Amino acid sequence: MSRTILTVVETVSNEKGLNPEDIFEALEEALVVSTKKRVYTDQPEVAIRVAINRETGDYDTYRYWTIVADEDHEMPACQLALSDLDETEWSLGDIKEEQIESIEFGRIAATQAKQVIIQKIREAERALTADAFEPRIGEMMYGEVKKQTRDGYIIDLGDNAEGYLSRDQMLPREQLRAKSRVNAILYHVNRDNRGAQLLLSRTIPEMLTALMSKEVPEISEETIEIRGVARQPGVRAKISVKTNDHRIDPVGACIGMRGTRIQAVQQELDGERIDVIVWSDDPAQYIISALEPADVNSIILDEDAKTADIIFTANDQLARAIGAQGQNVRLASELTGYRLNMMLEEEYLERQQNETKTFIDLFYNRLEVDEDLAQALVDIGFTSIEEVAYVPVDTFYDIEGLDDEAIEMIQERAKEVVIADELVKQQNMKEPSAELLAMEGMTTDWAYKLAQRDIITVDDLAEQAVFDIEDIDTLDNETAGKLIMKARESWFNEENK
Q: At the N or C end, where does the chain have fewer CB atoms within 10 A?
């Protein structure tokens, strides 16, 4: 029988390309299952161990028991009570083992163990596949449609590897036939024992990037860089490019002579319309390019908030910038990373007037200045009481007729208003408990911010989930989880009493 075992290990290892140790372990587990079924039918909880000699193929079988406390002695088939043994020789958790007669590794045992061996082989094969393909995540795979399933297609990638292309990762109107060839991006490798292992996609941005690199030599040679991609798969996409050689037009190179290069990519993506634009480190220019073919009249950026007001003089240009069902502006926003607010010039002027009136009323009522001075403060760019209180004095010199004494009075009044507002705010501010402030890992800033959310005590914090507090400034997901678990320690301590 020893020769039979070594033959099985060698054959399976050669045929499947598996590590012989994995096969030995599968056979040991199979012999354990067979032994329980044949010898211990009425004791399913019995503990068995089989050890195969890797050199000779001989194997020994052992039955073992775990030493437990008397009150935990619930399964005599695999446990021994410490009081029944010599306590000087044994301690809790030790294993007492005795050799038993080994069953024959013949046809019956092999048949009974077949499923165990197959499962182990499958697990080892999946591990090998994962090790081989994980470094290739993000690459474009080329394969042949092997079979259609209810929710997608199995793609033969060669070398006994299969990928899975689900329908939600395909273009909207796309249909594939058996034996047809297809390109797709490997976006995930599933190491679990269930479900498809190599997951493919034709809808993620990397698909467009890979196809452009394939069709445009300058991209693969890194003469041209792809800086951003935004897609509505199968419908429209925007891609921004930058040249590293000023002699090369990046847009022209990507489109190709008479559009041949871009058309090849569009054909692969079921006619997806692709806008190629020049990337710019100037956000305003980048946004204007991203909104093509619309003509932008003016643009006002807030780089901190990542927003931009886009102003148009004509309705047709506004409609063109927005695109069918908001498609153009949505892709432009995704590409640039800015939230884009589209409006006509009249709308913008009306909004500006409303904002101006709001600021004038603020200064008129809170600083007790006349309307002309309030208007002048707005005209030179003031939008808050804090700005008036703390900007340098020379900022006010653009206001005609305002001397240093008047400027000092205005700033003193503004500081009084700011201080008064802060006092009101502090009076209304909820205080965290001393216990919460003193909790390990807690900062004063986080404690006060938690208190404003009615999280006053450690017990209040213990009842929260990570997503409840992870949006607090400077508090990341991992730290939020640690703070909550620290707060829950009191619960665990009470349970253990």
A: C
